[in-house]
Automatic annotation (TrEMBL):
PROSITE patterns: ABC_TM1. This is ABC transporter permease subunit. It is a multi-pass membrane protein. It is found in: Cell inner membrane; Cell membrane. It comes from Nocardioides agri. Pfam families: BPD_transp_1 (PF00528). The chain crosses the membrane at residues 7-30, 57-80, 92-113, 133-152, 188-212, 232-252, 282-306, 345-362, 374-399, 411-430, 467-489, 509-533. Belongs to the binding-protein-dependent transport system permease family. The keyword DNA damage does not apply. The lineage of its organism: Bacteria, Bacillati, Actinomycetota, Actinomycetes, Propionibacteriales. Residues 58-253, 335-533 form the ABC transmembrane type-1 domain.
Amino acid sequence: MRRTLTLVGLAAVPLAVLGVFFVLPVAGMISEGFYVDGQLDVGAVVEVLTRPRTVRVVWFTVWSALAGTALSLLLGVPAAHLLHRRRFPGRSALRAALLVPFVLPTVVVGVAFRELIGEAGPLGFLGFDGSAAAIVAGLAFFNVAVVIRAVGAAWESLDPRPAEAAAALGAGPAHVFRTVTLPALRPAIVSAASVVFLFCATAFGVVLTLGGLRYSSVETEIYLLTTNLLDLQAAAALSIVQLLAIVALLAITSRLRAVADPTLARTTARPPRIGRGDWPSVAATALVLLLVGLPVTALVVGSLHAGGGWSLDNYRALTTEGSRQALLVPATTALVTSLRTAVDATWMSLTLGVLVAVVVSRRSHSRTERRARGLLDGLFMLPLGVSAVTLGFGFLITLDEPPLDLRDNPLLVPIAQALVALPLVVRTLAPALGGIDDRQRQAAASLGAGPVRTFATVDLPVLWKPLLAAAGFAFAVSLGEFGATSFLAREENPTLPIVIFHLIGHPGAMNYGMALAASVVLAATTAVVMLAVERLRVPSLGAL
């Protein structure tokens, strides 16, 4: 009974937050889609889903997500081999650098690719500006790090002896990989692919900035239906379909992740140096570096050009409202708002994340308790199954009337961003807590330590590094969050990603130069946070 009451007590606050800021918005969204003037109208939803444009949008979402996943796997798997199974100078720095794109703001990546492949860009001659190929490249830019981390962690855990035995019997490298290594890695690869597909299908900023008027995903279509066409019912119908599809995919991903969890101890053998047979891995890693490095380099170079020469004028202009009053507040003010919002979102997500991680990671003493913890784990992961755009839209239509009229509350944006970051925080903390021997807690309790003292003396020494890593991830995710914030941020109090999007939407060389400079500032801030997280060596991406 005491264990049950403790479980309920720890889960009470996160469940209450989930109910108010997740279940209620989703329920309101469903009501908006299925009910017209208080009457159930399923036909209206069917009408929205059978529109020719809706069919095209859904098809492009699925096609681009599949293409982005395939490209991420094609580059990420061999790069994981080089970065996790081979030894060379600078390997740690390279692994850290390739982690940064995963949390870069989506609008920044969109601006960087436009600067690279635009008509005046270094690769403008390729004609990729406004094309589906640019969108797929942008999706792979984000998600190749997920593949490298997830597959690389599994690769490091493999016992090398079966492959060595096959090679000793005369099998070539390709045959060893196909018959021994690949079957062992298949669960991790499939799990990583499902997670990447989920991220690609819910991409927002990349499609919005690179797709132009020609391409639209479900995410951007919801945004356009809400902000431009004011067709809330159609937006709600699309959100419902997306919610069901992503939750189903999330359930599959969870099962695959359970299968893919390494069961072997990580080998302590020192990895060999790069050999002649590693050229496919070297080539794939070089392509990954080009995919990541070229847009970022083009962004930085472009931000330093103004008035036909090298200049810092674009950065100096960040203290202004741009040409023709493009902004209501300067970009520097928006940066302060982003930092303040990220701090709030971080402490919120950490507070909830620690409680959730403690609940789902404790060892169960009965089948009922185990099922309860599994149910709670699934409930707390639900925000990962809802895109940020859908979440922001749900906030927009449900939290605007008493007694929950929060539209003017300054904490509404941090709350939305905290929910977006919560699954990543939990997946960073739960494995660390789950790895603690429960007998240590029992010994502390038998010596008279209460629950708080036990947590402080047993759990906290193990948890502090993952806790700092989770804080870094939450802070970085909040800095770059664009989907939910685009619905909720007030025009006079925008975050920096919102300002960047407004600047690229207003004509004028000064506004575009400011967008480039603001993107560099935001990307550099995020990169510094993520490089600090990488030094903690907590495999957060692999835990997804």
